[in-house]
Design a protein that fits this description.
Elements (H helix, E strand, L loop, with lengths): L1 E10 L2 E7 L1 H6 L5 E5 L7 E4 L2 E3 L4 E7 L3 H6 L7 E2 L1 E6 L10 E7 L3 H13 L3 E8 L8 H7 L2 E6 L6 E2 L3 H9 L6 E5 L2 H11 L6 E4 L15 E4 L2 E4 L6 E3 L5 H8 L3 H19 L1
Parallel strand pairs: 9-10, 9-13, 10-11, 11-12, 13-14
Antiparallel strand pairs: 1-2, 1-7, 2-6, 3-4, 3-8, 5-6, 14-17, 15-16
Helix pairs in contact: 3-4, 5-6
Length: 280
């Protein structure tokens, strides 16, 4: 069992958990992920590591309550335990001193972009950050990102906080300015990453994305997380989760992500019905 040492509400639908997992924390690096189960009978869900502390033996995850499992996890409190917590999985981010780097986090992607930005800065890079959310209420970790970047741009889709824009707008402006950007990381919804890659491709700037696709075992055995990159079938769990965004078949990825929407909706409805029944 893996105890929850800390729980923090970041937004109405986003919660942070600090999990006691010393063996994972000792080996964790930026860009890697864990797969957890909240109960013995529960589904396995992948979550990119938002932070890690080898000395304290903890892993931090940030969860957005969208489906049945994440909604159920949202009811867990400090002192509760997770049934399983497996990791670190996947290949870590390739950290070097590239020069000027740009990290872009959208929505929940703000969390996993944080350790990448921190590691890049520690390696001597000049780090520019862009973070965005649909509105101010859904934005989190602004100050955390400011602490690990040299410049930070904040946008909201509806203009309720800072600049009204999608993250791709300041990204394109920076690239068009002629300023030398050596490498870009973009993490967020698949559609957002698709357009980050499309924005940077004409400028020839290497662009890395994190594909948190459907996963079951996390070891490359089940094939559920297969993606097409550069015309080759790759597995996000063992070959990734980070890939060259200019080589990803985004249309195929988006299509595969929609494959279980009906099942996910049914599971959530059944869970909500059970909750309603329990309240009677």
């Amino acid at each position: 069992m893996y105890p929850i040492l800390k729980k923090q509400v970041l937004t109405p639908v986003t919660k942070l958990y600090v999990i006691e997992a010393p063996e994972i924390a000792r080996k964790a690096q930026a860009g890697q992920f864990v797969i957890l189960r909240i109960t013995e009978e529960g589904e396995r869900i992948p979550l990119t590591i938002a932070d890690y502390d080898a000395r304290a033996g903890t892993i931090t995850i940030v969860v957005q309550e969208l489906g049945k499992t994440t909604r159920q996890l949202g009811t867990f409190e400090e002192g509760d335990s997770l049934a399983s917590f497996t990791g670190p999985l996947g290949r870590p981010t390739e950290i070097e001193n590239y020069g000027t780097t740009l990290v872009v986090g959208g929505g929940l992607g703000i969390a996993p972009i944080y350790p990448i930005a921190r590691s890049l800065r520690e390696a001597g890079n000049h780090v520019i950050g862009i973070i965005g959310a649909r509105n101010k209420e859904l934005l989190f970790w602004e100050e955390e990102l400011r602490s690990v970047t040299d410049e930070l741009i904040v946008v909201t889709d509806d203009g309720s906080y800072m600049r009204k824009a999608l993250v791709t707008v300041p990204l394109k402006e920076l690239l068009e300015s002629g300023r030398k950007i050596d490498r870009i990381w973009g993490i967020g919804p698949a559609i957002m990453m698709k357009f980050i890659a499309a924005t940077s491709e004409p400028f020839g700037v290497p662009t890395i994305v994190s594909l948190n696709s459907i996963m079951v075992d996390g070891t490359g055995m089940c094939g559920a997380c297969r993606v097409s990159v550069g015309g080759r079938t790759r597995f996000a769990c063992v070959d990734g989760p980070e890939f060259d965004g200019h080589q990803v078949d985004w249309n195929l990825l988006l299509s595969r992500q929609r494959g279980y929407l009906d099942k996910e909706k049914e599971a959530l409805q059944a869970y909500e019905a059970q909750l309603a029944e329990n309240k009677r």
